[in-house]
Amino acid sequence: xxxxxxxxxxxxxxxxxxxxxxxxxxxxxxxxxxxxxxxxxxxxxxxxxxxxxxxxxxxxxxxxxxxxxxxxxxxxxxxxxxxxxxxxxxxxxxxxxxxxxxxxxxxxxxxxxxxxxxxxxxxxxxxxxxxxxxxxxxxxxxxxxxxxxxxxxxxxxxxxxxxxxxxxxxxxxxxxxxxxxxxxxxxxxxxxxxxxxxxxxxxxxxxxxxxxxxxxxxxxxxxxxxxxxxxxxxxxxxxxxxxxxxxxxxxxxxxxxxxxxxxxxxxxxxxxxxxxxxxxxxxxxxxxxxxxxxxxxxxxxxxxxxxxxxxxxxxxxxxxxxxxxxxxxxxxxxxxxxxxxxxxxxxxxxxxxxxxxxxxxxxxxxxxxxxxxxxxxxxxxxxxxxxxxxxxxxxxxxxxxxxxxxxxxxxxxxxxxxxxxxxxxxxxxxxxxxxxxxxxxxxxxxxxxxxxxxxxxxxxxxxxxxxxxxxxxxxxxxx
Length: 479
Hints:
By secondary structure, the chain is of the alpha+beta class.
């Protein structure tokens, strides 16, 4: 992963929100530290999502020495293959494996034509966000090898291997011009947070790293069926795509067997250690800076003399309307999300009218707000594009740190001491005055996208003298 993405993932792991999951979709949503529903159609074709198996940190081992022959292979290290039907029985468990997913009837050229525009979009997206700096292969071309293809005339799961064999591009589609997900994986870079040095293609469950694999059995966390993968070239394989699910699976175990049914490789999921949130005394509550009223309101950039973009507008919604709307997505956060790592986040209870609306921006139904719990130990960040949770939204919670501050967030900030005005150097808008309220600040209608940029933040005292200068990762691409 690139430095930028690693930083996002690290921030997610250090947050007091939810633990990292085991698929790329989940990793990126954790990097946004939110429960995402915004721009799903766009993101599904551009963000690093794979329509294959995503495994997290795992261990693998070869289970047979090179000198071992068929007669010396224990029964639990083999499978039985019906010569007439091709049915496979796992001798270790006695279970029959589900059939191999169908090979796509599409030609390699047809598969390429279907996938190439979305792979290009994905590559462009990742380059714009400075992700996957190890990916030097560029978009897929006819010279890339189709290492697997499964499906029918409509649904498709395919993988392309670059000519130098450094990158695999994955492509999952519901139908022509209806992409589900696209991904880019390295055959040399290790998976995020791996302690075992596994290449991404192995750790993401798309490649057997030893030669001779003729049969691959996969056990996932999503179902109880022992599944056979379709094995392509160069050790790559796929569980296919049924046109119904996301096509993303989290692995329990993968086993590879040679043509004679002897196990030659095994891959076991090992849950990554969850970071332990730092201990914070129960007496610690959030401490915001004392408000400073500017004597001189900045309208021009002190550095260039050019006009500053105005601050985002205060939302016309009443505080009670804000808490009412945010309660809808707050309920979904706890109903559909994992249990928060920090007990304080859960103990704060649901958002009610007693929560302080510390900051609110937006027009009409569009809203981004920062709410603070009555005990001043937990914040909720709420972004909505509709009047209810049935519309697009983004949401997150976090708890106060030992220093009395909320952890740094991409979507809002806490005003530094002594600062009366803040200028955020946004990449598109240019220098922009931030909206400040109750010790918090925001630079736009943040949420619902992945426009994370590292920008300069400048703070000025009441007389317009600069007293603060720092860089911060911010959501700089607004809805």
